[in-house]
Amino acid sequence: MDNRIALRVELEKAIEETGCTLSSLAEYGGLSIGNLSASLQHKGKLRPITMKQLDTLTEALGLPEGYYYEYYLAEVFSHNNKVAIPRMKSFLIRCAELGKTDLIMNAIHILVEHPKYTELLFSVAEELYLNGLVEESLLFYEEIIQEEKYHHSDRLAISHYRIFRATIGSNAEENYKAVIRFEDFRKNLPENFQLDALLKLSKVCLSLKKWNLTEQFADELRILSTIRYQEELLLMKEGKTEPLITERPLVVYYGQSYLIKSIALFKQGHYEKAKQYIEGYEDLSWFEILDEQGKKEVESFVCGQKRINIV
């Protein structure tokens, strides 16, 4: 039996067994009785069942979440057998939330020849990641890395970056492997991601005592944050406001680049050279682009430098 018909037959059977009416089910989930009735018809041209309808019916029937998902994959195709992207995206996200990896892999196998395959997977991965479902997003980022055709694409670089961030933990060896895997993609990231990535790379390498890499990433961070500061300053003077959206205020990246470089030099015994970089972050009050958070960050650099001087 076709899975689309099988899904409707199973739902009809469950509704009959519970003695519920369509109107009571629709009212329970705030659904349109007309739309629900049309979607459940299994004769003639089938009207797609939405994820909201399926999840609402499943809950109303007292069944576990995702109970009917094994039948649902057929619903993501339109009448001409093309993938309905919105329904497929909703299906993949819900499967990820519920840990239904087998169903995700089945969907990916079907999607692999679709022209917007990696675009769809990236959209799913980003939604999961930004909603705090980091572990659930990694399968999709890994698939993008395997299938992305364009080596210099933003999608590929961001996928590597997300996996790098998720991998970093307390295991030094695994952290170093993560650095090596990601470092070649850092320059393909959008600029706002580059600042965050270089800060993370330099901090991780500092903790690993990889001094050459620490200095290299800190130098890149200093150069990039300086260029970005000059660009934003120019825009501000022209009355334009186009601040780059980053995790931290711009002053953090600038100050941290000097701080991390100074620590790396100090640890190697290059004390005089380290002092030159300390001067780069000990007083950042001249920094013109500062919001309230930025001002607090400047103060933290001052307090940090006082502690270093005491030591």
Provide structural commentary.
The chain has helices at residues 3-18, 22-29, 33-40, 51-60, 69-72, 85-97, 101-111, 117-130, 134-147, 154-167, 172-182, 191-207, 211-237, 250-267, 271-278, 292-310. It has a domain at 193-310. The protein is mainly alpha-helical and 311 residues long. The radius of gyration is 26 Å and the shape is elongated.
Largest sheet: none
Q: For this entry, what is the oligomeric state of its chains?
A: single chain
Residues in β-strands, percent: under 5%
Structural class: mainly alpha
Share of helical residues: 55-70%
Question: What does the radius of gyration come to?
Answer: 26 Å
Q: How do the SSEs run, as a string of H and E?
A: HHHHHHHHHHHHHHHH
Overall residue-averaged pLDDT value: 89
Number of helices: 16
Q: Report the principal-axis shape.
A: elongated
Which key phrases capture this entry?
311 residues, mainly alpha, 16 helices, 0% strand, disordered C terminus, Putative DNA-binding protein, DNA-binding, DNA binding
How are the elements arranged and paired?
Blueprint: H1 3-18, H2 22-29, H3 33-40, H4 51-60, H5 69-72, H6 85-97, H7 101-111, H8 117-130, H9 134-147, H10 154-167, H11 172-182, H12 191-207, H13 211-237, H14 250-267, H15 271-278, H16 292-310
Helix pairs in contact: 2-4, 6-7, 6-8, 8-9, 9-10, 10-11, 11-12, 12-13, 12-14, 13-14, 14-15, 14-16
Keywords: DNA-binding
GO molecular function, one term: DNA binding
Organism: Paenibacillus larvae subsp. larvae
